[in-house]
Amino acid sequence: MKTKSIIFSALAAVAAAGFVSCSDLLSVDSKTVMYEEDNTLSHATDTVYSVMGIIKQMQKIADRTVILNEMRGDLVTTTDYATDDIRELYDFNFGSLSSKNKYDQPVDYYSVINNCNFYLSRADTTYVRNHENVFLREYVAVLSFRAWTYLQMAITYGKVPFIEEPILSGDEAEKDYPMLDVKQIAQRLIPALEPYRKLKSPMYGSLGGGTNGDGSSSESHSSEDLFIPVRLILGDLYLWAEDYVNAALCYHEFLTLNTAPVPTTTNHVGWQDKDFVDLGQDTYSTMFGSNLKENWICYIPMESEEYNGIVSDLENIFCSTEDNYYFYQLTRSQALTSLAAKQKYCYHDVNPNTHVSSIVYVDPDLQTEKMLKGDLRLQSVLTEKTEFSKETSRYSDSRQTLKKINPEKICLYRNDLVFLRLAEALNRAGLPQTAFAILKYGLCKTNIDNNDIINQEEKDYAKTLGLSLDPADEKLVFNENVFMPAEIDVAVGATLPSYIETNRYNTMGIHSRGCGDAAVDTSYVFPHHAEIDSTNLAARKLAQIRDVEIMISDEMALETCFEGYRFADLYRVAMHRGEDNGLYSDDEFLATRVASRGAAFADPADADFDAVLFDKLNGDGSKLNPNWFLRLPDMK
Hints:
Elements: E1 8-10, E2 19-21, E3 26-28, H1 44-71, E4 76-78, H2 84-90, H3 106-122, E5 128-129, E6 132-133, H4 136-157, E7 160-161, H5 170-173, E8 176-180, H6 182-193, E9 206-208, E10 220-222, H7 230-240, H8 244-256, E11 296-301, H9 314-318, E12 330-332, H10 334-342, E13 346-350, E14 357-361, H11 377-381, E15 382-386, E16 398-402, E17 409-414, H12 415-428, H13 432-440, H14 445-448, H15 456-464, H16 496-501, H17 512-515, H18 537-560, H19 566-579, H20 587-595, H21 611-617
Antiparallel strand pairs: 1-3, 2-8, 4-12, 5-6, 7-8, 9-10, 11-17, 13-14, 15-16
Helix pairs in contact: 1-3, 1-4, 3-4, 4-6, 4-7, 6-7, 7-8, 8-12, 12-13, 12-18, 13-18, 18-19, 19-20, 20-21
């Protein structure tokens, strides 16, 4: 087996519209291209080697996917110790980024894409052994990697050259390639993946593990966790393409047709009793770090030591470590802090003597001492404290820990993210009650059958879309729910959390992850919009969809903050809202959110609202706003 490599170098960039010559963007050193023209990948060793090589290439863009999405969102802010590279991104000075900014290296995306294109052009998909297409799973896995990478690049750069063939020579680099945005790219990629939506990921067993040079243990990886399930990447493509029904179907199928349950799980932020005495014993933060299996679906594996390859720097950016002398660079924004504080935490209390139940709201004023206000997920995963050091000039006294960081695994998908994207797709498909049910109650037989949660009209409409909400359909229902108060039969002396904890695979509302028993919260309700004339059903439905969309966007912030999805989520929602008015996007929605990152309210009247940034990011919405995106080299 020959060593194979493709080396790219970024030279110059692209025209603002139309087509671009690839030679202006990429240059191929033909001396390093060692594949013969007639070579095909037809041996197991070749295909496995090539697929794992692509995963290794993805390590280069893993950290920046997180940083570029968070820095252009509304949930983080910089500290005085942020690097120039990070500060440039935070200031949205994309037209004048330093050429050495390590987060602005488009060549690394095309390194992945070109390796994928080479593999796809050479893999022998006709080879059958024992009535099984031997290399089809790897082929589809590479299609998924390419699709994910193209989405990330378009989310970062706005419009990018779309290339489906491998570039192996200068002649191929001279061709013209279309400049496409994320919606157009999604539309182009869907047909290649759609025939394989039921295909499972490759299985290579356990990879990695062992002892590092310093005596520490490196993590092992189940090979299945390194591949993107086809239904999930297809769901994302359909969502960006604004084909909401097919997006919902893909997410729905992944969640309901899986061989193992995909619950929202029992891991929510709670304490041992109703007095909330011990923040350290919450069950939410434990699903991050090394205990990932229950909630994570797939991730990019990173190296544990630099001499093995790419090591993640996210821990040094978000956390106080010995390597950074405890000077972390990013922390929570005022917008995120305020959003969490504005939520209400309630719980369903059962008197052990009388068995009488009641709904109790925790008074935020009683939690001031430990900052336990509203939604508790933020306090669960981000901890801050002061430790005085004798070497004050060398070490920071302020110490921060972000429990979502696992330096050897950069998460791409996890269960709650999929449920939230399902809610986003269902809502825009015209099913806002069903989408809201994911936030408040969880989707399951009991809740779907409850007309007070999802009315019959919406259920009937769902059937016309091909989305089964019929509890009798055993193949298309979600895991049973045990969180509904009416179903709770708590033994004397037992607490609600301990009862739920015995039911490992349940489905509860995502909002309950940080706000207690959201299902019984009378202030967290579906927006009925009774003030709109009942004869104007279309206007009422659209108003409901737009309001639920804001609730979903807020829930995305509370549940997935710091994980590298935020700008993409805001961009996608802005596109949805622009579509309502025949526009490319609702620029004002995104501009208001990002300009409010230092404010307590997403409101231009707030004293800390950044009016200058708002003006930069706002536009008429008629076309893609270039101020949202980094520039390819010649566009600066």
